[in-house]
Amino acid sequence: MASGLAGKWILESSEKFDEYMTVLGVNIITRTMAKAAVPTQEIRVNGDEWYIKTSTTFKTTEITFKIGEEFEETTADGRKVKTTCTIDGNTLIQDQKGTFDSVLKRELKDGKMVMVLTVQDVVCTRVYKPTE
Ligand code: DKA
């Protein structure tokens, strides 16, 4: 179940994050800080209502949403996107529509949260482990 994603997570590994941010038009200074950051994510689930707080030393974002309902999201790099989140099995799918469409999937795998971020032909994978 996707609600198993609830909890506190910390980044363990990351692949192709720089490529992902480059396609999104993120400048090199922000990319450098973002690559060096070790984010934590706090996820709370209450029925269909979700809360995700992503914290780093240089930027914190919070989103609150209902499954299937579009909302306005400001991403960590300042893009304004229209986002709809859905669930497919144990995966939360965050579909962002904007200048660049991107999909962020969070899946529980072997006790870790595997995040797969796609924009155009770039697929970035970020693995989070529980904080405790
Ligand atoms: C994550 O939560 C990745 C979130 C990607 C945000 C887009 C790029 C932000 C650059 C500051 O691990």
UniProtKB/TrEMBL annotation:
Q: Which UniProt keywords apply?
A: Lipid-binding
What InterPro entries does UniProt report for this protein, alphabetically? Calycin, Fatty_acid-bd, ILBP, Lipocln_cytosolic_FA-bd_dom
Looking at the record's lineage, which domain of life comes first?
A: Eukaryota
The Lipocalin/cytosolic fatty-acid binding domain extends over 6-129
Q: Does the keyword Magnesium apply?
A: no
Any one GO MF term held by the record is: lipid binding
Which family does the record claim for this protein?
Belongs to the calycin superfamily. Fatty-acid binding protein (FABP) family.
Q: What is this protein called?
A: Sodium/calcium exchanger regulatory protein 1 isoform X1
Lineage here is:
Eukaryota, Metazoa, Spiralia, Lophotrochozoa, Mollusca
